[in-house]
């Protein structure tokens, strides 16, 4: 059994096409088919059922697939570990981040420092909701995702590493709001004092705000649902409603006010979601740089 054969098994299982699997592996189709046939002969089992219309993985193939993936991942990790010992940082580093994590961690500044230190690492970044970024880590499409700790358990083979202390949420109200002269308010009196400007559904901030109101047994009116936290703050400053946001977004508000919440447990903890079965040296280096940059700041 050869590593190349295991790569062919994984590629064919994912693509269901000899043509596409050969393209992914950078070989001609006949070579891929021949090497897979040799593996099946060695194992004494058919790994794929081939028809004129489709390729279907067999029960034996299903048994081999997770083992093949694990072996290939271990080989990649071993190579990266050896390269790290030699002082080499190369390859690709896929990073996902929510807008809250990017803001709180100064991601652009940290990535700039990382690039200057390891220019041979190709940095690839994507942004989006936390649940999408975490799913991409679980699927192996990203090396790490920077997002808030979720209310739900981590997916299989993914773990969360906190990078910052919990960030308390505050309620931003305009200067003419009835509670504008207060320093603190509870969710019940906030709900009675006007409509809310909310973050979009399925984001961790929105889920935590919804859960906090549910625990209090309070219904609230939602006037706006926006996709950017700074925009939520601007709407609140303009007197269009109340915005509950992480405290670091509520600065330089003019005559508007950021009220501390009586429900102090309403907060976000930002960290890194990584593969539980081992991160690459490049991933660990970035995580350490993110942590150290915040402690120095």
UniProtKB/TrEMBL annotation:
UniProt entry keywords in alphabetical sequence: DNA-binding, Transcription, Transcription regulation
Annotated transmembrane regions: none
Domain of life: Bacteria
Keyword Protease: no
First and last residue of the signal peptide: none
Domain HTH lysR-type: 1-58
Keyword Nucleotide-binding on entry: no
Cited PANTHER family: HTH-TYPE TRANSCRIPTIONAL REGULATOR YBHD (PTHR30419)
Similarity annotation: Belongs to the LysR transcriptional regulatory family.
Official protein name in the record: LysR family transcriptional regulator
Species annotation: Amycolatopsis cynarae
